[in-house]
TrEMBL record:
It comes from Dissophora globulifera. It is found in: Endomembrane system; Vacuole membrane. Its main location: membrane. Coiled coil: none annotated. The gene is ATG22_4. GO terms for biological process: amino acid transmembrane export from vacuole; autophagy. This is Autophagy-related protein.
Amino acid sequence: MWLAYAVAAEPYSVVCVSALAPIVLEALASGYGWQTHNRDLPCDTCVVKVGSLWLDTASFSLYCISVSVFLQAFVFISMGALADHGTRRKTFLMTFSFIGSIATILFAAVRTYSLFWLAGVLTIISNVAFGAGYVLYYAFIPTLTRDHAEVIQVRKSVQSGTETWAEYQLAKDRISNSLSSHSMALGYGAGVVLLVIAAGIALAMGQTTYSLQLGIALSGLWWFCVSFFTLKFLPPQPGAPLDGNVNLFLFSWKRLGKTLHQASQLKETFKYLIAWFILSDGSSTIISLSIFMGKKKFLLNNTQLMIGAILVPLSALVGTYMWLFIQRKFNLSSKRTLFIISAAFVLVPVYVLIGFSGVFGLVYKVEVWPTLIYFGLMLGAFQSFSRVMYASLIPKGKESEFFSLYGITDKSSSWLGPLITGFIIENNDTRWGFIFPLCMMVLPLFLIMWVDVEKGIKDAERFSQEHTDAKDGL
């Protein structure tokens, strides 16, 4: 039933975050907006007043996402280490799931342009809850892997001397990748289905803004209903009990402070986090630039953008299983597979930069669709193998704490790429912006190869034994 949560929550990302929310927020803000130079006159795309501030309606959704990213960092840290104790991991997971899904359903209640601010608030709440839920969801990977029947059997064989420690780690790696890949593929599959239904609703209602809101609300209703399977059937995977005298509001912050102070004992783990920070920024920047280029250069309409939004997760579903097959076929480690996928990802910005030749390289609109398919084939597996590799490098009993760091690293990088590429492409061809993600995708390749996974696993095992709450004075 762990997999059921991906089926429940991932459609929110596919339907709301990636496809419909930015369009809806901009449309609602524009409907209540005013001309930039004459704020007494209404217009389609100008400025809107939020409190005492006047904001560009085209940037309203970006501001909402930025606020949610900041709040996510605060929430991730506040709940991280706390969720590793008792049954709080599942409790927190379900709490954020229901908060996020209800906030998403309430998009259907925004019936007038004057309530554009409410849509922004609902976006912030749902995005924070979605991110927090996935941090807790990822944290189940190491524990589910250790408790898997195949891994337990190999561990017993290691203890009896019939199999080696390396074979045990290989079994863990294989099971982790299987769990992660299945969850990614099932999540994308559910997302595609919901997005197709949302597109059908939009077409039936004349592609009005409210029809898109109903599509968002549908993803929230799906999230809410399917979450009950996780609530009922997912084992809580309880951690160590928490001392009753601790301050619940400050515990996770103190625990994280201790961990960061002792980071030198987990060099391989933090080397990988740095690599992931750069990789995540590079991949998210490619997405942002591609959408911008599609609108500006190829003038894609909403229907064409919707087709693109369906093609990417559908390709990601196929790519997730394709790369899992390749890994097993050639007996590759997660590290080597992630390196190959990341190297393949580099070809996207390279292809766009080739377009300066004027021959090919996103020069013609027809090139958009195969490029999106190729991008999707990398995307799902890229995310899946990255979190599996990280899961192998974190100390036992501190899964939620360390995945909160992973979540912060992932989300906090999302502002850097757009900021730098914004400066690059201002008054220049959009293609120049792809130089930045090209560099951001190449540099981490060397960092990943530098990570000693075997040493990192042993360091994490030693860290979990030497740094319990009691030994660290917590």
